[in-house]
Amino acid sequence: MDGKNAPESRPQETAGQQFVQRIRPAGCILFLALAVLVTVICLTNGRDPIPGYTPPETTEYYATHPEALIGELEENVFPALPDYELTSAMTGDTVTVIVESGNFAAARAAILRYFDASLLLFERG
């Protein structure tokens, strides 16, 4: 037998190669654009719990003045988070935030967006 009559063997295509051939270049571009969009959405921060709020003092100031931190929390932060029933108290040198009702994890995350975790302890009420 000589090689002239043997059928030509083509390399087997992978599933990925078949997929790309079927969706054509426009489909590939759409697929990549959607992948980039999903990545951007996943990597960006969520919504701002208190739009436009910035703590008036620094973390260092609140570390040495816990009473000022309690005042800021009770006057400006807790009223702006109506989905949670929050109170604060002094525990030794540390400010404790008590989440009476609402999602504990979401309330904690909302407050920690503005204040350093070293300043606060969180408890369920």
Explain what you see.
The radius of gyration is 28 Å and the shape is rod-shaped. The protein starts with 14 loop residues before the first helix and ends with a strand. The chain is built from four helices and three strands; from the N terminus they run αααββαβ. The mean pLDDT is 88. A three-stranded mixed sheet has the order 1-2-3.
Q: What gap, in angstroms, lies between the N and C termini?
A: 87 Å
What sequence of helices (H) and strands (E) makes up the elements?
HHHEEHE
Q: What's the rounded overall pLDDT mean?
A: 88
Shape: rod-shaped
Point out poorly predicted stretches: none
Give the fraction of residues assigned to helices.
40-55%
Order of the strands making up the biggest sheet: 1-2-3
Helix/strand class = alpha+beta
Query: Helical segment tally?
Result: 4
Cα Rg: 28 Å
Major sheet: size, sense and barrel closure? 3 strands, mixed
Proportion of beta-strand residues:
15-25%
Number of strands: 3
Which helices and strands, and how do they pair?
Elements: H1 15-43, H2 59-64, H3 66-77, E1 85-91, E2 94-101, H4 104-112, E3 120-124
Parallel strand pairs: 2-3
Antiparallel strand pairs: 1-2
